[in-house]
Amino acid sequence: MSTPEQKSIWYSCLSPSLLLGMALLFPVRLLGAEQPDVPVLQPDTSTLQTAAPTPQPDLLDTIDAPRDYLSGKLINFASNIDRFFGDDRNYQESNQSVFQLDLTRVTGYGGDQKFTLSGRAKMDLPTTEKHLHLLLETNSSKNVTGEPAQTQATPITKVAAPESYSAAVRYEKKKEEEKPWHFSADAGIELHGTDLDPFTRARGSYSIPLDQWRLKAAETVFWFNSIGAGETTQLDLEHSLSETILFRASSNATWLNDKQNFDLHQDFLFFHTLSERSALLYQVSATGISNPHIQATDYVVLMRYRYRLHRKWIFFELSPQLHFPKENNYQYSPALSMRLEMLFDGSK
Prior knowledge:
This protein is an alpha+beta fold and 348 residues long. It has a single domain, classed as monomeric porin ompg (Porin). Helix content is 17%, strand content 48%. It is built from four helices and 15 strands. The protein has a 14-stranded antiparallel beta barrel. The protein starts with a helix and ends with a strand.
């Protein structure tokens, strides 16, 4: 028979064993107590010759790849090309102040013995965080409809002045690099001699990545007191063929409500960068109208050589062309265009 002293010794030995067993069966972590993490030793499997599991492709990878391509090589290449050639997209969508002045002479088909002066400027208004801009342009109504400006024939030693001048205020959604869309709206007045022609315009564009291609859609609606309301839709499909060659297919349709007609334009262009100072553009184009029925009015094959004369703002351009106009029964009519351009923006 055990004495009380023996029972006390036996319980004292048993209690630690019971507490250890309860701790193993019911971890303190499961009871809600906060305990520091204890590293768990894992068996060494370095000697096992088991094949590693094949990683499964993530669905998001297929979505990110086009976006990475768009925001990387293609969009930068296209933007640099547009800036180098003084393209309209550079003027419309650049966040920087832009001033572009052109002195152009065309000989042969569509030209005469004169130099034509044209220009446009977009300047940020202070304290508006690049949301408001002052626009100064020549031949605004001709530019929006795609019609060539008509000037009186002048001696070759003189420069033909633009038909009209305009001033407008533009609201522009500040462009962000990660955003694929752009929006702007203008209101202004165009001066034709002594006649005032108020106008409004709004333009929106959106870039859509398509694997290694980019589709850029732009829509412009406008109203000029002199020509009425209209809209222009443009779709550009771009693909980088190499580090120096960019392909672009551009489709353009302009609707004039007063004429009840679409002016149609289709371009296929290859931009070839030769060096930091020179580039070539190869272009095949077709223009047409929809009223009274769809018909081609001119086919054009041309090449443009553009050379940067000084830094990044003075350019010279030479463009031999072959036109096949309907008015000449689609017989070829050669032309040569020469241009001196000054382009002022944030580049130096």
